[in-house]
Amino acid sequence: MTRFKKQFLAGPYLLWIIGFIVIPMLLIVYYAFFSNGSFTLNNVMAITDTVNLKAIILSLKVGITSTLLCLLLSYPLALILRNINIKSQNFIVFLFMLPMWMNFMLRILAWKLLLSKNGIFNSFLVQLNLPKINILNTPQAIIFGMVYDYLPFMLLPIYNSMANIKKDYIEAAQDLGASQIRILFQIILPLTISGIISGVVMVFVPTLTSFAIAELLGGGKVLLIGNVIEHDFIQGMRWDIGSGLSFVLMLFVLVSMILSNAFSNDSKEQKGGNVIL
Amino acid sequence: MKKNLIDFIDISKSYGDNLVLDKFNLTVKENEFVTLLGPSGCGKTTTLRLLGGFETPDEGKILFDGANITDLPANQRKLNTVFQKYSLFPHMTIGENIAFGLKISKKSSSYIKDKIKYALKLVNLDGFENRSVDSLSGGQQQRIAIARAIVNEPKVLLLDEPLGALDLKLRRSMQYELIRLKNELGITFVYVTHDQEEALTMSDQIVVMNQGYIQQIGSPEDIYNEPENAFVADFIGSSNILNGTMIRDCLVSVLGVEIPCVDEGFGNNTPVDVVIRPEDIVITSPENGFMEGDIISNIFKGVHYEIEILANGYTWLIHTTKNADVGAHVGINVDPFDIQIMKKAEHSDEKAVNIDDKI
Questions:
Q1: Secondary structure (3-state) at B35
Q2: Under CATH, domain B239-345 is a member of which superfamily?
């Protein structure tokens, strides 16, 4: 095939990239740094406004907490799955994936109903003569929703990396006298670092930037940075401020990606000691 | 008299309905190189895994130095294993791999450093401490796996087909290296293989196994020259195995021809298996042999010619250094000492029982 034909075949993808990735990005950058045709840093610096600053700090808290909770739930589960037979493994993983067949907005809406003041959860508590709890419209409810939605994205990469550890390594470590705890920290953990990092990125980035879950389970009372940006674009028609904040948020995502990349490169030359996450 | 180091006592093990070992008994003495030899599925690897602590027997017990270790977990047994697929930890350097066991037993860092140096020297890989596992070839990885096991100074080294993944030349040189290691370290080797040549080259004792039963235990010479049954004869080297009848002491009838032999005590007119090694058959002129036939093929094998002769309806396999023409009419002859007579086994269980009685 000639060079020309090859390039011709790549054409549609190039159009896609230009139309849906490059141009929108450039527009964001343009709106962020230019007001009425002149350069300005005001839009980006809008992050230092009390409301916006509070929102991004809360977003970081929610994102980090959700990611840690997903990790704490997924890792032991992946460890347990490793030790049961392959048929049950597939079935349990299938169960965890099953909710993903349904639109995530619908699932969050369902939780909104379940957790509401007079919802099923609270009427269950009343039946047991326990006090009602009002979890809805709090950051805790948002974290709960995020963990519920994004758990599979943490579980799958960890489970995959765990399943890829050959049984021989575990037996070799046992043979050399290693206890179960030593095997966990010196063999299994270092060999699943890449899975952990993929999982962390796949959960942290969407939880940091999400606004829909916060909108539904926060009832508009909890503002994450995603909600602020959404308000700027849709309600306030403040495209310049929205773009400026989006730009800052992208920087946060970029930094977290760079950090996790650096971490995964480190772990290749990792000296077999404990990994602190 | 060497003392017993390992005793398997009436060990039975099955996976589901598949009985792998049935009332298995075996004793390994100190400083021996013992090879478990047999086809795949004969229970040799299971035996090794039971000894390593990776499986527990359904019945019976395992004694190590006189103490019962049947229920002792793998990480508390004073033996180390070299696995078939090397199993070096991919996230550690070579040095860290070797140090793994030593760190667990809380050795000082200067001791560990010396030990790594010593072990690498022993396996001819000086200066490899800081290399990564994937930068090593298969043979080098296998030698590191051996180094990682022996630095812990185990009383017994278990080797599970460690040379299986290597090419022929490398396998040969590793065989010699293992023999050298065994002599230098003075530790007991329990070696599992399906390669009879490997077993004959390295072992002090060979345990031939089939279907969970021991078929024969003996030195390489015993196993090769005096196989106790047709399975052993067939499995070790290539053989001419024929149905025969023991007419009386020192006379056996094969393919309608009576041949003198040196075996006694089988009774008169008893059906037996007759084994003749291909290198023991001599090609002569038709009138000088006990049987005459035609050469149907001749393949040059380097050291010898592999010749097939069709005589009395049986295709004889002959290894000889003298060339012969295909199609020639010749006679074949065997020295009576080179004819091995074996009682016919009625079924595989009986084979094993017979041998157990002798032990």
A1: strand
A2: Nucleic acid-binding proteins (2.40.50.140)
Q: What is the dihedral of CA A254, A257, A259, A264, to 10 degrees?
A: -160
Architecture of domain B4-225: 3-Layer(aba) Sandwich (3.40)
Closest CA to A143 of A52, A53, A213, A80: A213
Q: How does DSSP classify residue B106?
A: T
Q: For tokens 């490398």, what's the residue? A: B170
- Interchain contact, B75 vs A177, CB within 8 Å: yes
Question: Looking at residue B115, what is its pLDDT?
Answer: 94
A178 → chain B, closest CA residue: B75
d(CA A248, CA A242) in angstroms, rounded, equals: 10
Q: What is the pLDDT of residues A158-167, one digit of tens each?
A: 999 999 999 9
Task: Give the pair of three-digit tokens for residue B356.
Answer: 């157990």
Length of chain B: 359
Put simply, the answer to whether A175 touches B76 (Cβ < 8 Å) is no
As a whole number of angstroms, the distance between CA A63 and CA A211 comes to 12
Contacts of B104 in chain A (CB under 8 A): 176-178, 182
- Domain residue limits, chain B: 4-225, 239-345
**Report field, pTM of the whole predicted structure over 0.90:** no
Instruction: ipTM value, please give it.
Output: 0.77
Inter-chain residue contact A172 with B96, CB threshold 8 Å: no
Which residue of B76, B100, B144, B156 is the best one to mutate when testing the A interface, meaning the one whose CB has the most A CBs within 10 A? B100
Query: A169-178, B151-160, B260-269, B337-346: lowest mean pLDDT where?
Result: B337-346
Shortest Cα distance, chain B CAs vs residue A171, angstroms:
7
